[in-house]
Amino acid sequence: MSRVYTLVKTADAEATPAIERNSVFVYEAPVRTWHWVNAILIVVLIVSGYLIGSPPPTLSGEASAHYQMGYIRFGHFAAAQLFIVASLYRVYWAFVGNEHARQLFYVPFWKRWYWYEALYELSWYLFIVDKPKKWVGHNPLANLAMVVLFTFLSLFMIVTGGALYAQGAGNDTLWMTIFGWVFVIWPNSQEVHTLHHVGMWVMVIFIVLHVYAAIREDIMSRQTMLSAIVTGDRYFRD
Amino acid sequence: MAAAETFYDVIRRQGITRRSFTKFCSLTAASLGLGAGGPAAIAHALETKPRLPVIWMHGLECTCCSESFIRSAHPLAKDVILSMISLDYDDTIMAAAGHQADAILTETREKHAGNYVLAVEGNPPLNEDGMYCIDGGRPFVEKLREMAAGAKFVVAWGSCASWGCVQAAKPNPTHAVPIDKVILDKPIIKIPGCPPIAEVMTGVLSYILTFDQLPELDRQGRPKMFYSQRIHDKCYRRPHFDAGQFVESWDDEGARKGYCLYKMGCKGPTTYNACSTVRWNNGVSFPIQSGHGCIGCSENAFWDQGPFYDRLTNIPYFPVEANADVVGGTAAAIVAGAVAIHAGVTAIRSTIKSGEKTEA
């Protein structure tokens, strides 16, 4: 976890004069790429997943003339498999990337200062304190929200979704070997469908909070958010 | 109780001559490619192997499993009962009653200890020491434990014995449990369904009889040969599902044309059973073919995955009856509303603040 930083960059090899800079490099290119690819995949997954639960109005004519549900399901499954690959890649990058790449998977749960700072952030959101602190990566409260609402949720969706996909793939497939244990917990897969669907709504809630917090902090706090996930550099104002 | 009849006895009883019998053994051995001793070995086995004694008990149930069983066409139920197995006890259809019937249980337990099949229809309720199901003056659960102790295999007929079914649905006042919660030390095969398909029931018995072992079971204890695929995987209406052609309401155009019943709450996509391939009543039809969605009767706790007629079912363990869209949509709307209010408060506060600054 990054504490509050004072940011000074020294002269580089080309002897550019040393200047005091107010930016810091946070999000490496693989993390940024993953973020936007994932954003697209999740939108596709939510739309196609919703349509699987509540399909569009019935089509008339010969069955052989259409493949509507087939395409919707293909979109969902294809996006889901890319989502799994992207998630595995992101886990890999947590090992080889910089310290901010690890924030998605870790909360300093046992550190007293962490909870103090999280509480401070909460008071900022509740209009109790006037100024937020400067954080290079996610602030402590955002860190908690990310791990619980995004990382755990993603894992839950991958596991339940993988199990449901395994049923279609068949009993003797690798999918069933990997995800079949889900049906030991929930033997009736209708229940797994329902929980997977609830997970979709939790993801919608996450997106609402995530986008709002990013835009608001970009305007209100003293650091950039939106440009940071595009260029990787976070600027600190004032 | 009849003396343990061998298969040879049964064959002779049905009017087949000794000559035909030996010809059958030779032909079978030849077609299986067995050596010179083959015919004699087959004849010896048929002459000495007794019919499989089966004890069929009834706990909390509705007898729909028995009703289904007697309608088996391949093999015919009468052939199963009269020629293949030795159904020594089944209180619903046997001639004996009362003490006579109970005596058969004791006799089988002693005479065929470790060698009989215990078939259980229904399940034991455990509340009040099992007093909610009394059989012959004693709690059914006691009898069940007693008979299971000497059984070679245990067959769980139907969803009652396999999962608990309707009497185990919430709130389950009698604390009815599937039999594998009571019988812990015997191989159990589950044949779920409410009722199970007749040919699946007789097919499993034929398998046990032929190979003297249980067929390969899946993770949930069901025979893979009948429960490996979902209704939806082999449904003849599946092309309409893939095309996006659904029945939207009962008796609409789609219903008349036989479109997919997915939107009417068909549980085919989540139900493992052989209905869409084996079908019912000698292959005449099955629920979806008759225009009604599958209710998922062979699945664990299917009563608690309602409603039967909605694709999106209620969230289990949630105090209010509501599906994922209602709960999730409401929660998302509340969060979005809270965010809007928060944004509004933020805007007002910043306006006031900047106003203070310019004044200063």
From TrEMBL, chain A:
Keywords: Cell membrane, Electron transport, Heme, Iron, Membrane, Metal-binding, Transmembrane, Transmembrane helix, Transport. InterPro entries: Cyt_b561_bac/Ni-Hgenase, Di-haem_cyt_TM, Hydrogenase_cytochrome, Ni-dep_Hydgase_cyt-B. Gene3D superfamilies: Transmembrane di-heme cytochromes, Chain C. This is Probable Ni/Fe-hydrogenase B-type cytochrome subunit. One of its GO terms (cellular component) is plasma membrane. It is a multi-pass membrane protein. Signal peptide: none annotated. B-type cytochrome involved in electron transfer from hydrogenase to oxygen. It comes from the Bacteria. It holds the Pfam family Ni_hydr_CYTB. PROSITE patterns: NI_HGENASE_CYTB_2. One of its GO terms (molecular function) is electron transfer activity. One of its GO terms (biological process) is respiratory electron transport chain. Residues 26-232 form the Cytochrome b561 bacterial/Ni-hydrogenase domain. It comes from Roseiarcus fermentans. It is found in: Cell membrane. Belongs to the HupC/HyaC/HydC family. The chain crosses the membrane at residues 33-53, 74-93, 141-166, 198-215.
From TrEMBL, chain B:
GO terms for biological process: anaerobic respiration. Residues 62-207 form the NADH:ubiquinone oxidoreductase-like 20kDa subunit domain. It comes from the Bacteria. InterPro entries: Cytochrome-c3_hydrogenase_C, NADH_UbQ_OxRdtase-like_20kDa, NiFe-Hase_small_C_sf, NiFe_Hase_small_N_sf, NiFe_hydrogenase_ssu, TAT_signal. Its main location: membrane. It is found in: Cell membrane. Its cofactor is [3Fe-4S] cluster; [4Fe-4S] cluster. It is an enzyme of class 1 (oxidoreductase). This is Uptake hydrogenase small subunit. It comes from Roseiarcus fermentans. The lineage of its organism: Bacteria, Pseudomonadati, Pseudomonadota, Alphaproteobacteria, Hyphomicrobiales.
